[in-house]
Design goal:
6-stranded mixed beta sheet; 5-stranded mixed beta sheet; single chain; L-amino peptidase D-ALA esterase/amidase; 26% strand
């Protein structure tokens, strides 16, 4: 029987030195909302898949307003829609949607169908990013539809975020343990102003032996004889992955600065034991809610602010810590799952994690 799942800090364990926000979640950045649609079925197809929606400015400003955003690609074995316009203009004016490789087309179609400006689609270019869930979910079902996108959007809210086997993370595996969605946040102060950095990940990468928590080599202490490794990993160096990292901050940043923030998040991936293997799609997206752009008005964008480059290092520190903890939370909150063809991916034993951390 699966044990009750808990976040890392609920186990009395911490990562890094910076304080967290109220919910230790990406939603600690004011205005950000997160929702999930989880699709779990046994017939006619075995499904362990779904959609996760991140609304950077919440429902009220969806589509009509934009923000500065950027991205970083550590290893490009993956797909992300809207990437071209994000790189070109450095602006984001749609939700960010996370799903499976097999759902990316349907989710992109769905979000376009739900856009309130469906005849023009003025500047939306929605971001839909994926990781592969075909080990636990029937890859030939193509089950995701527009109504699943709508459910994820309708579920979006602020406050605590559901983690583990939910939404786009339902069928994901990380470091050979069951994983999925994870989130964390950090608070920093720059010249007397308080800012928040929040991270949400969809984690689906890595080998058991490489898994670390706050510098402790946890994975190498848990042998396959204790917690079985998925059968597909029986052959070393099997290509698999990936991870999507979404970084949000209320600090006023321009698009190039968001690129820089997204790039630092990958250091958090490295701290957990991610190496950007050949078959891994490792994408980071960062956005700032510190400037809100009204996209349906003519004329100049007024009152734009930006931190000086020399002052943004605390945000980099926050992004690294929050990314690492979000990944660990994605594993800690996920439960043992049986899926397609009777395949089983086992959860990280939390009491074992505590004992390993205590012994180091």
């Amino acid at each position: 029987m699966a044990t009750r799942r808990a976040r890392l800090r609920d186990l009395g364990l911490t990562i890094g030195a910076l304080p967290t926000g109220q919910h230790n979640a990406i939603t600690d950045v004011l205005g950000v909302e997160v929702g999930h649609c989880t699709l779990t079925k046994e017939s006619p197809n075995v499904l362990r898949t779904g959609v996760t929606a991140i609304l950077p400015l919440g429902r009220d400003k969806l589509w009509s307003h934009g923000i500065f955003a950027g991205l970083s690609v550590f290893n490009g074995y993956g797909e992300m829609t809207g990437r071209g316009w994000l790189e070109e203009a450095g602006q984001l004016s749609s939700p960010i949607l996370l799903t499976s490789y097999y759902g990316i087309g349907a989710v992109h179609r769905g979000i376009n169908q739900l856009c309130d400006d469906i005849d023009i689609h003025s500047g939306t270019h929605p971001i839909v990013a994926e990781t592969w869930d075909g080990w636990l979910s029937d890859p030939n079902a193509f089950a995701l539809q527009t109504d699943h996108v709508e459910q994820a959007l309708d579920d979006a809210k602020d406050g605590p975020v559901s983690e583990g086997c939910v939404g786009g993370g339902t069928g994901m595996v990380c470091h050979d343990f069951k994983a999925g969605i994870g989130t964390s946040s950090r608070k920093v102060e720059i010249y007397g102003e308080a800012y928040t950095v929040g991270v949400l990940v969809q984690a689906n990468y890595g080998d058991r032996a490489d898994f670390r928590v706050n510098g402790t080599h946890v994975g190498e202490e848990i042998a396959a004889s204790e917690v079985p490794v998925p059968d597909r990993k029986a052959v070393p160096h099997t290509e698999d992955g990936s991870i999507i990292i979404v970084v949000a901050t209320d600090a006023p940043l321009l698009s190039k600065q968001c690129d820089r923030l997204a790039k630092r998040a990958v250091l958090g991936l490295g701290r957990t034991g991610g190496f950007g293997h050949n078959g891994s799609g490792d994408y980071s997206i960062a956005f700032s809610t510190g400037n809100v752009l009204s996209l349906r008005e003519e004329g100049l964008h007024q009152g734009i602010q930006a931190l000086a480059e020399k002052d943004i290092s605390p945000l980099f520190h926050a992004a690294v810590e929050a990314t690492e903890e979000a990944i660990v939370n994605s594993i800690c909150m996920a439960a043992t799952t049986e899926g397609y063809k009777g395949r089983v991916v086992y959860e990280l034993p939390l009491e074992r994690l505590k004992s390993i951390m205590a012994s180091k």
